[in-house]
Design brief:
The protein is mostly helical and 137 residues long. It has 5 helices and 3 strands; from the N terminus they run αααββαβα.
Length: 137
């Protein structure tokens, strides 16, 4: 079962990262503690040459961009109310509180996306967050 989930994630995640990348290019930015590092990662992919002498690197299409975004796809874990860009287990707040700081996957169901430095929220999370807010009132 775990192998099937991993295969599904390897197929799904690159497309999600590409969609997030395109959203950032269009000004639809993520929010949350991890938003700055994610947008900086995307900016590095979309970077302009620093000097006129530098040969520009032209991306021919989504496949070329996906190759550059592969690192992001490998660390992406989806939760119902946030994305976790699990790049550093020692920065994951829930792993620290659970006493498993060296885990290889986040405890995504316990993620506090308002405080975890690796969490971001995107427009796709709005319905879940709105429903939660409605239930609390």
């Amino acid at each position: 079962m775990s192998a099937e989930v991993n295969d599904h994630e390897q197929q799904r995640n690159p497309e999600l990262v590409l969609a997030d990348f395109h959203n950032c290019q269009q000004g639809v930015l993520p929010v949350g503690p991890g938003a700055r590092s994610l947008t900086e990662f995307f900016a590095g992919i979309d970077e302009k040459p620093e000097s006129a002498a530098a040969a520009p690197r032209v991306q021919r299409g989504d496949r070329d961009v996906l190759n550059l975004l592969a690192r992001g796809a490998m660390v992406l874990h989806l939760g119902p109310a946030n994305h976790c860009w699990f790049t550093n287990p020692s920065r994951a707040l829930r792993l620290k509180s659970a006493g498993t700081p060296a885990a290889d996957r986040p405890l995504i169901g316990m993620c506090d996306s308002a405080r975890c430095p690796q969490a971001t929220r995107h427009s796709c999370h709005q319905p879940v967050r709105a429903e939660h807010a409605e239930r609390r009132t």
